[in-house]
Amino acid sequence: MPVLPRLFVVPVFFVLSCLAIPVLANEPEPGREAAIPGMTEAIERDIQELGRLDAQIAAAGALDREALVYRRDQRNLHLVKDMGKLVSAVTQLPEDDPGRESVAASLAAYLQAGEEVLLRRIEELEKRIESLRTAYAEQSGAAQIATEAHLQSLQSSWFRYYEALMDLVEYRQKLGQSETGLRERLLPQLYQQAETLAGRIDANGAALKILQQRKSDAADNTDLNAAVDELLRAQSIDMGNLESTVGLLERLGDDPVAYRAVLLEQGQGLSIATLETGALGSLLDDSWTALKESLAANAPDFLLNLLLFAVIVLVFRALARLVKRAVRSACERPGTDISTLLKEVLVSVCGSVVMVVGILIGLAQVGISLGPMLAGLGVAGFVVGFALQDTLSNFAAGGMILAYRPYDVDDYVEVAGASGLVKKMSLVSTTITTFDNQTLVVPNSKIWGDVIKNVTAQKVRRVDLVFGIGYGDDIPTAEQILQDVVTGHDKVLEKPETMIKVHELADSSVNFVVRPWVKTEDYWDVYWDITREVKMRFDREGVSIPFPQRDVHVYREDA
Q1: Which of 36, 41, 229, 357 lies 20 to 30 Å (CA to CA) from residue 98?
Q2: Mind listing the pLDDT tens digit for each residue in 197-240?
Q3: Peptide bond into 98 cis (omega under 30)
Q4: Is the distance from CB of 312 to CB of 362 less than 8 angstroms?
């Protein structure tokens, strides 16, 4: 069988003789003139080395022959690269160069010889690969592992030879020459390879789904785990080979959308090539067709499961309402002293728990596995918690307020610089309405981290009043008037007793402190009523209420 050096000797020497014509006729750029002879010398060295390898292969034994053939493959592929460099150099010659046409013709013959050699080598590789596959099926242990590695090496060489053929096609296109039918010869072989790989990938994928389902039920089965690992490894190799085959088909100008879809379906993932070739659309079309067929076949069971799920959810929804009513009634029972916030939280949580349990039971009844869903919810909860740290701090503060109850709805509070009546409480914030009817929403973290003043927390409060009389007024008379006014008010409590004392001798007045005790809700009524009544009684009894005065003395000097 002819080999690459024997076919290339005559064209190469012919090219060398023709390259002298443009050099003598024109004056190309110095770089090009120097590069082309160097390239031809490199090709000559490759041809000589291949000739020696041919002789060695013919005389070598079986074991050495494999190594020498592998070495020859490397030299053949290197020679193709050198040919590409020479083609690039020739195409850079001026179009009006007299020697360009003759050099291009010689290169065409050179490329034709290379195509035949590469095709024959591909046939030899295919036979060798088939032989190794047969041996692999009959072997076991270390011998099988070694054969598998050798098989992968030959498959890699097979793809590299096809890539070299693609290079030859592109070289002809650069020279403006016909492809000599190489594209038509390669396409059927590549499509057969792609179809075989795609079929094996689909079959292995279906088998993997079955084995992985069994593996989830018997995780300790070593034989099962080994079988899954073996299929995964074979699947990875086949997918890599199919990816290479698809790339070769695209280099030939074809559009292997169906095989791109196989790679995407089996987990190859999205890529620019996938989107450009329309493999994603093909996969979606296939998925839609499969979905329609599945719905047509399983529609009765699907409807029954859907109806069962809806019934379970509705039943638990009604049960959740009953639970919420029961919890609310228990919280509002006489003698139960819990905050409004705690009551609302208990009602909401109990109803939500019953509803979530119902949804989970419904999903389990229709065949949906809850394990992965719960695991996913755990991961999602971690991510959400990390992203909402400030909100969670409000939740934590709301929990502390819920537990310690520093205030409740309708309490008058002063918190975080705001004061007013508490109108609404939640685990996140507290809504306060001021006395001038403004609504303030204060985050719970701001409240719990500051001083909380609950004005209405106690049932009884002391009213602190201060009244002043003039220095010329009678103190016992003023004390009696104050005592009469306080005891005469029906909302002042007898216990604790009211305190009326001379408190201080101020700049302009003698000040009394009046401190009656009242119910918290009567505080302001008593405050305003006593202040008004004291002023009226002082006026009637002739007791003065002094105000700050300043005496100005004017001295006049006689001239």
Answers
A1: 41
A2: 888 888 887 887 887 777 776 667 777 777 777 778 777 887 88
A3: no
A4: yes
